[in-house]
Amino acid sequence: MRKIFLTVALLIQTLAMAGGSIKEAPYVNEDIQDAEVGVPIVEDKPEPVYIPPVVQDVSNVKVNGLYTAIGLTASRYDSNCNCPTALKKDTSVGVVGRVGYDINKYVGVEARGLKTNWKSEGGKLEHYGAFVKPMIPVTNATNIYGLLGAGKTKTKDIPVGSGKINGSGFAWGAGVEVDLSRDEAKEGRYNREFDGHGDQEEGLGLFVDYEKMLQKSDAPTADALSVGLTYDF
Q1: Residue 172 CA: distances (Å) to CA of 58, 111, 142, 169, 196
Q2: Residue 25: CB partners within 8 Å, gap ≥ 6?
Q3: pLDDT per residue as tens, the chain (233 positions)
Q4: What is the pTM of this model?
């Protein structure tokens, strides 16, 4: 029994001494060390997909400065002659027609014709002219305009010795136009900047103007006052 205890004690002592000499084994190489370092996993993010915006076609808005007009006119004729048999003054009523083009809101060109048919003292009058038309916008619906150009004027059925007119020369005038259409920009691309005035709209308007049909010294006086409707295309 004593031998058994000695044997067990010796065995325990041997195991204790053996356990005290156990050391941690060094790493053999760097690959093993690196293997224990945590490597983060990076997930690839998908690239954003570009979707181009839908572009709608923009229609072109063509600005048409063309216009026409028709109205009534009252003309006046004065022979400026002191001849005893001469027709001193005469008035007649007729029609006037106008065709023009507004280049922009400040200037246009116009051709017009005038003919009187209803006479009071026996005289009739015809007149045709071409003009430059400077304009001053007062409001979006109203503008004042002038007329500077040349015309041909002819009187008919004037008594002998009263100083008939049959000639051409400088003519001028002035007037007012009022646009009755709605001056609002349309959806689209304008071929010139929208100015909000009647030269870019279509519809009816009113006009009143005065014209000196022949400006010549020593010539009979012929002028007219007209009123009517315009239409912008």
Answers
A1: 43, 12, 20, 10, 28
A2: none
A3: 666 666 666 666 666 565 555 555 555 555 555 555 566 676 777 777 778 776 666 666 677 789 999 999 998 877 766 665 555 677 889 999 999 999 888 999 999 999 987 665 656 889 999 999 999 998 878 899 999 999 999 887 655 555 567 778 999 999 999 988 776 666 666 656 655 555 556 789 999 999 999 888 777 788 999 999 999 88
A4: 0.66
The type of residue at 54 is V
Q: Considering the domain boundaries, does residue 205 fall inside one?
A: yes
Does 125 fall in a domain?
A: yes
CB 69, CB 232: distance < 8 Å: no
Nearest to 225 by CA among 92, 135, 121: 92
Pairwise CA distance, residues 146 & 70, whole Å: 18
- Cβ neighbors of 12 (< 8 A, separation 6 or more) are none
CA 199, 142, 151: angle at the middle one, nearest 5? Answer: 70
Domain span holding position 82: 70-232
- Per the structure, how many domains does the chain have? 1
Has residue 14 been placed in a domain? Answer: no
Distance CA 213, CA 222 (A): 6
What DSSP assignment string belongs to 118-167? EESSS-EEEEEEEEEEEEEESSSSEEEEEEEEEEEEEEESPPTTS---EE
CATH number of residue 142's parent domain: 2.40.160.20
Q: Is there a domain that residue 77 lies in?
A: yes
